[in-house]
Design brief:
Layout (H helix, E strand, L loop, with lengths): L1 E10 L3 H18 L2 E7 L4 H7 L5 H8 L3 E6 L16 H10 L3 E7 L12 H4 L4 E7 L9 E6 L2 E6 L5 H16 L4 E6 L5 H14 L6 E6 H10 L6 E4 L1 H15 L6 E5 L5 E5 L16 H13 L4 H16 L2 E2 L9 E2 L2 H10 L2
Parallel strand pairs: 1-2, 1-3, 3-12, 5-10, 8-9, 8-10, 13-14
Antiparallel strand pairs: 4-5, 4-11, 6-7, 11-12
The protein binds nicotinamide-adenine-dinucleotide (NAD).
Amino acid sequence: MKEFKIAVIPGDGIGPDIIREAVKVMTKVGEKYDTKFNFVEVKAGGDAIDAYGNPLPQETIDECKSSEAVLLGAVGGPKWDNLEGSKRPERALLGLRGALGLYANLRPAKVYNVLKSASPLKDEIIDEGVDLLVVRELIGGIYFGDRGTEEVNGVETAYDTEKYNVDEVKRIAHSAFKSAMKRRKKVTSVDKANVLDASRLWRKTVNEVAKEYPEVELNHLYVDNTAMQLVRKPSQFDVILTNNIFGDILSDEASMITGSIGMLASSSIREDSFGMYEPIHGSAPDIAGMDIANPLAQILSAAMLLEYSLNMSEAARDIEAAVEKVLNAGYRTADIYVEGTEKVGTTEMGKLVLEQI
Ligand code: NAD
């Protein structure tokens, strides 16, 4: 029997409600594949502020570092909104990404056939299929470059710097090409190479890395065109590779196309197999503890964890197929409910997925 240590951070709001279901699903799929997951629960976000006065205690970082992967719920909530920046729950996310060296953010956006009415796009666009993955560089670029606010010729002036070196681009490009090899083998690299030096270096480096993946088709698009193409013809995309700021914006646009944030998972990874896996949505304090949150994004995050960190692709496919079967059978949580389907709560939805594994 294989054993893996998994750090579990339920966090705040609906975090504990949905992570409970994901842990059950992982345990069940583990039994099927003769694998034991040793879940170690640790605190981050508001939960950790309440317990230790610190959104990211050292103990949490240490437990995460000694695990194979991290499964995270969500952090934040109105209770901690008045704290100053460095003490806020959301600081834990940046802190974890930095402390764990997670430089690649992978965000799938998929429209399930039975949920296509949730998409704000027309049927004829959605019917061509939407199943893409945004691979965003996470710890470089303008969010981390030199910045300042100063007076220039008597006028208050502020600046931020977009800066990448070849090594930073190479490693994120490899993440994108490796992901494409597991998918439909197409990478679209997104930049602004008609204007920015950093983008020209980006493009040149991506072209170099592409030579190592001859099976993968590569094309380049400018970010403004990509924003348009995402709503015009999202079916053209498989893997979108981009920098930190463009990825921030495009991954939200891609999520919006699916129309259901309760369904979308994400992962932050590095070059070894370690990663942190979480839903894209927040802690939804408005529905916390009410047994109505959609646990599927969290459950699909667990599937990503199995695929990317534990190399258990078959188990990941089992979870994805189970989710699809439950949706096809007509079960919906309140956020994706439409007339003619059956409304179920968080626990019931988790149980239904479990039964399909
Ligand atoms: P949110 O994603 O928590 O909620 C937006 C809306 O979507 C709410 O109406 C919520 O009820 C609904 N929703 C979200 N997830 C759902 C689910 N699984 N099932 C059903 N409905 C769901 O965003 P927000 O309201 O802007 O933020 C709430 C808190 O979460 C804030 O403190 C914010 O800072 C934090 N946040 C955390 C993360 C994270 O932990 N990664 C990300 C975004 C926001």
